[in-house]
């Protein structure tokens, strides 16, 4: 499956610090769709990145950092939550190529699943397309 390596989700693209997540929820803007809720923060510098390690300096950072959340209260079964997160990651990977990268802007985006039942991949993909259109092509 070598044709998927082009838009693979890298480890550096994922938000992995609780401090950044709390800042996004506190100071960020929110967009809601029928399946997804998105909290995002647009910054002009990489002040939330760790500058002490050389592999995360500002020249090698990605312009979009993301996280995917599925509520344990809404989707009780863990295998369903994991499936939704896999579908969300795949939808993002397919729509990643249409995101315009602005110079010296970094976007921190959190995608949250809203519904209580599992939806199919095509509905989720369409929701991602709509969200990306709202986010980047206002």
Written account of the structure:
- This protein is α+β, with helices and mostly antiparallel strands and 138 residues long.
- It has helices spanning 18-27, 78-95, 121-136; strands spanning 29-32, 36-43, 64-70, 106-113.
- A 4-stranded mixed β-sheet has the order 1-2-4-3, sandwiched between helices.
- α2 (78-95) crosses α3 (121-136).
Short overview:
It is built from three helices and four strands.
Termini gap: 35 Å
Spatial ordering of strands, largest sheet: 1-2-4-3
Weakly predicted, low-confidence segments: 50-60
User: Which structural class do the helices and strands define?
Assistant: alpha+beta
Q: Major sheet, described briefly?
A: 4 strands, mixed
Mean pLDDT: 82
Helix content: 25-40%
Label the overall shape.
Answer: globular
Rg, rounded, reads: 15 Å
Number of helices: 3
Order of helices and strands, N to C? HEEEHEH
Percentage of residues in strands: 15-25%
Number of strands: 4
